[in-house]
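Reminder: ligand-aware prediction takes two inputs, not one.
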Amino acid sequence: MPGSDDIVAVACDHGGFALKPAVLEVLQEAGLEVLDLGTDSEDSVDYPDFAQNLAEAVISGRAGRGVVVCGTGIGISIAANRYPEVRAAVCHDETTARLAREHNNANVLALGARVTGPEVAKDCLRAFLQTPFSGGERHERRVDKLGRLPSSA
Ligand code: RB5
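Here is what comes back for the chain with D-ribose:
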């Protein structure tokens, strides 16, 4: 069941926690409802657990899209992308965030607090929120294939 795009789930690990205020600021400024899935401090946690909670929120429809943050954006996006319904894109600038929406219909933005500063992260998030999927036969076909397990492709 797809969730409302007005509800955005946010999950990070301790390495991503420093960027969380910037993420919440943009979501609040955009008037979106936040489903905050933690973590809430710099105490060490395991990013796969937070990615799993976020993926389950998106898949169940509790949120329409999500933002995950770890130190690099890599570990938490790998974990989130283990779910075929999740298309998490690690983005480092506005252009990658825009193209992740236009071409890949990304439903989760992944950011790295240790590699991306807060202002660039905010630009990424605004582009992710505001850019529609381009659609069209070729992009639809490719995105469709992303949702199929290799054994059923
Ligand atoms: C945690 O130290 C760090 O490994 C994590 O935040 C992330 O960068 C993993 O990909």
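The pocket of D-ribose is lined by residues 13, 15-16, 47, 70-72, 74-75 (CB under 6 Å). The first helix runs from residue 20 to 29. We will return to this case in the review session.
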